[in-house]
Fold Putative redox protein.
Amino acid sequence: MKAKLKWIDGVCFMGETGSGHAVVMDGAPEGGGRNLGPRPMELVLLGTAGCTSYDVLSILRKSRQDVRDCWVELDAERAEVDPKVFTRIHFHFVVTGRGLKADAVERAIKLSAEKYCSASIMLAKTAEITHDFELREDA
């Protein structure tokens, strides 16, 4: 995997992924930025959400669950001193579908957290990671 990051000005950077996608990262105005894009650590958090969501949906599809929608809300805390690593991350999954089985969703989340999601497994080295979920029936 490769990526490229180019400094624009101040604390603004343009990142390009190996797959050719671009993202602007910037800091808050009080930190010298112009708030043109997300902060780098916000992207780490979003990337982790994407990694685990991909796993959860893949596992649920393989177990023949009729998923119609899925999102994950994250609540994280960081250390107060440098390096300001994540110290706590809570994942709240909301899964909508027809006839979803709670045990299947719980199993999918657990497999992602413990076996498949490299991002959350990596972050678990410094952060207490917790999960919960809610099911919603699609009308």
Observations:
- The radius of gyration is 17 Å.
- The CA atoms of residues 90 and 130 lie 5 Å apart.
- The chain is about 30% helix and 40% strand.
- The helical segments are 40-62, 102-116, 118-123.
